[in-house]
Amino acid sequence: MPERTPYIAANWKMNKTVAEAAEFVDALLPLIAATQCDVVLCPSFIALNEVVERRRGTAVRVAAQNMHEEDAGAFTGEISAPMLVELDVEAVVLGHSERRQFFGETDEALARKVPAALGADLEPILCVGETEAARDGGETKAVLERQLQIDLAAVDSIDLARIVVAYEPIWAIGTGRVATPEQAQDACAFIRDVLRMRGAAANEIRILYGGSVKPANAAEILAKPDVDGALVGGAALDPVDFAAIVEAAR
To answer: What is the pLDDT of residues 33-42, one digit of tens each?
Structure first.
């Protein structure tokens, strides 16, 4: 099995002004200078350029938090892949549960967005995960398989290895409730099996866990064999906490 480089992404959501983003990057870079992990920062749209410029000369990469599937058009308030590429953004988060829950993003929309990102050479960080009701009803695997099959329907099997998948159980996002390491492992291993059935080189795909990851629990979660990293929310707003999670992934 190929060695998968740990992948730690900081999703700032609707937090940090441009000045605060600059301060964070300046504080973080010395703390992670020796890391062998892939570190990705996901600021708001207004801070993308600032973060891109401040990380230049380092291995830190930058991802947007969303994008539209069209290159241009009458889509007020949206951002396209060419706009992100022009800023030297390398990746994009797609299908985060908050986009699905609060903004009505559907799997059918993601089936258009993922190929659009790949076509622009942006790395999609595709988020999938179940609600508390689905978890308690024993429907976790059915939900994950449905999301993956629809979201990736237009992606050729050879291109699946270009995608990062983030398993984020909705019941563990911003709630303080965390999936156990065993639950995270089971879900990530199942996601890998679904991708393998789709013809993907599944052992090459990084699968992340997202859901109240903190310095205190990161090492135990990230030690699981099918958990290749983390999509970090609240703890990613503090450079010291985020650096500690990066360190836990080594």
So the answer is: 999 999 999 9
Catalytic residue of the set 50, 68, 69, 96: 96
- pLDDT tens per residue, range 96-150: 999 999 999 999 999 999 999 999 999 999 999 998 889 889 999 999 999 999 9
138: which 2 tokens?
A: 């024993």
Token pair, residue 46, equals 């207004």
- Whole-angstrom Cα distance, residue 126 to residue 201? 17
Q: Which residues contact 165 (CB under 8 A, 6 or more apart)?
A: 125, 126, 127, 128, 148, 191, 195, 205, 206, 207, 208
**Residue 21 backbone phi and psi in degrees, to 5:** -65, -40
**Annotated catalytic, 168?**
yes
Q: Sign of torsion, CA 150 179 161 163?
A: positive
Question: Annotated catalytic, 105?
Answer: no
Q: Which domains does the chain have, with CATH numbers?
A: 7-248 (3.20.20.70)
Question: Residues 61, 42: contact at Cβ < 8 Å?
Answer: no
Global pTM exceeds 0.90: yes
* DSSP assignments along 159-180, one per residue: GGGG-EEEE--GGGSSSS----
Q: Can you name the residues that pair with 64 across neighbouring β-strands?
A: 92
